[in-house]
Amino acid sequence: MQKISKIAVLTSGGDAPGMNPCIRAVVRTAIYNGLHVAGVRQGYQGLIDNNMYDMDPRSVSNILNLGGTILKTARCLPFRTDEGMETAYKNLKANGIDGLVVIGGDGTFTGALRFSKKYPDISVIGVPGTIDNDLYGSTYTLGFDTATNTVIEAIDKIRDTADAHDRLFFIEVMGRDSGAIALRAGISCGAEAILLPERDTAIEHLIENLKAGQYNKKSSSIVIVAEGDKRGAYDLAEEVRKQIKFYDIKVTILGHLQRGGSPSAFDRILGSRLGFAAVNALIKGETQKMVGLEANHIKLTDLEEALTQHQFKLEDDLMEMSDILSI
Ligand code: ATP
């Protein structure tokens, strides 16, 4: 078993609220256990540029409430190459680092696993940090809860104005491959329809549904469209406009505001638990694993398995319930 003496922590891919509580937990758990910690700036790019600094418990003071990530994040093309990985490895060795905690999504884990197979003397643990909630091995990922609450707050406001003007709003929310935010926000806001990348909803069905709403005296309608729906909110609105005249139809793209904001209680606790567990896993000699939360318990999953099983499983029962509750 490899004995760890110094670890590095980085955040990579899209930022997600909850990353800061996780960084804080990693730093303090490591120092509590007598390890040294380096913070790597800008994800894998920081490994290649040797952009890292020693952290102590005060380096992570007062960050629990901050969105984004104090370490910054980046999408780094050079890390996909053998040369980039070799430079990263040499920099880690030069800094005396033998363990790495990476916080990010499936791309980050793909890079981490490739790196760890090439350089097994650096132990690697992944923490699921993505608002998309689409990783195998953890019921929830960091940032999903906060992002969903942000979306709900925005849609509640849109509902007020939609209702005042008898309007139909198409609201696009984040999720290129995953309808997780759209589905949860749709249930929470009583959306009349939810369109997801995982399910093909025929336009005729949507129109029928909206007409039924009007027949049932609804004064406004909200259609949530996940970013990954192949038609997009604007084209959908255009199609519907041709056939529905009783509503004034508007489109709102929520965009990047969904990523920001102070992490929710759930994400602060999840970040703390996963960061704590990641360091304890490294100390126990684990590597090439992801820490996740299943049935409220910490669970380790092989990164290989997490990546091959990677897919958001749409809960059909929730879709069905949402359709019924929005009549
Ligand atoms: P999100 O879910 O928020 O998009 P992510 O971790 O999936 O997060 P990506 O941009 O896909 O975000 O990946 C983050 C980084 O991981 C990439 O910029 C790249 O540096 C690294 N990476 C991704 N795929 C590979 C790969 N096949 N080999 C090496 N590194 C990779």
Please render the helix and strand layout as text.
Layout: E1 6-11, H1 19-32, E2 36-40, H2 43-48, E3 52-55, H3 82-94, E4 99-104, H4 106-118, E5 123-128, H5 144-165, E6 167-173, H6 180-189, E7 193-195, H7 203-215, E8 221-226, H8 233-243, E9 248-253, H9 265-283, E10 289-294, E11 297-302, H10 303-308, H11 316-325
Parallel strand pairs: 1-2, 1-4, 4-5, 5-10, 6-8, 6-9, 7-8
Antiparallel strand pairs: 2-3, 10-11
Helix pairs in contact: 1-9, 5-6
This protein binds adenosine-5'-triphosphate.
Which key features would you list for this structure?
single chain; 327 residues; alpha/beta; Rossmann fold; 2 domains; seven-stranded mixed beta sheet; four-stranded parallel beta sheet; 11 strands; 42% helix; elongated; binds adenosine-5'-triphosphate; metal-binding; Phosphofructokinase_dom; 6-phosphofructokinase activity; ATP-binding; ATP-dependent 6-phosphofructokinase
